[in-house]
């Protein structure tokens, strides 16, 4: 994640369709969190996606607020305009820990994930809208403290 120059985050949607501009995405994100405060999320499992590159990620415990935010975004912008992995039927809430893990480190990353025993909490207190690559924050808003 250091390579990206971007803090740990949960991605709700990625749009490549020209119909969804930054202003629209940002308006919908702000509406999804309207009235909500910073969100404390518990993580107790580390997992990985392995295609096409190995990606290591932390799995949040079931969180109705995350699900509600995602559903609100999907209801406001046609999910067919979103990348397939972020559509309602496929979205896996996660906090990416490492991307594009090299093939020679893949087994180490998977062993780390399998061996992880613990629990940690993170307070997500900022929502933002980014464009990439490279990652550029184009809009950002702090969430009020709970």
Report on the structure:
- The strands form 2 sheets. The chain has a 4-stranded antiparallel beta sheet. A two-stranded antiparallel ribbon has the order 5-6.
- It is an alpha+beta fold.
- Helix content is 24%, strand content 29%.
- The protein has 3 helices and 6 strands, in the order H-E-E-H-E-H-E-E-E.
- The model has no long low-confidence stretch (mean pLDDT 93).
Strand order of the largest sheet: 3-2-1-4
By secondary-structure content and strand pairing, the structural class works out as alpha+beta
The pLDDT mean sits at 93
Largest sheet: 4 strands, antiparallel
Low-confidence stretches: none
Tally the helices: 3
Distance between the termini: 27 Å
Overall radius of gyration: 16 Å
Helix percent reads 10-25%
> What is the string of SSEs from the N terminus onward?
HEEHEHEEE
Q: Into which percentage range does the β-strand content fall? A: 25-35%
Number of strands: 6
Notable traits:
146 residues; globular; alpha+beta; 24% helix; two-stranded antiparallel ribbon
Short synopsis of the structure:
By secondary structure, the chain is an alpha+beta fold.
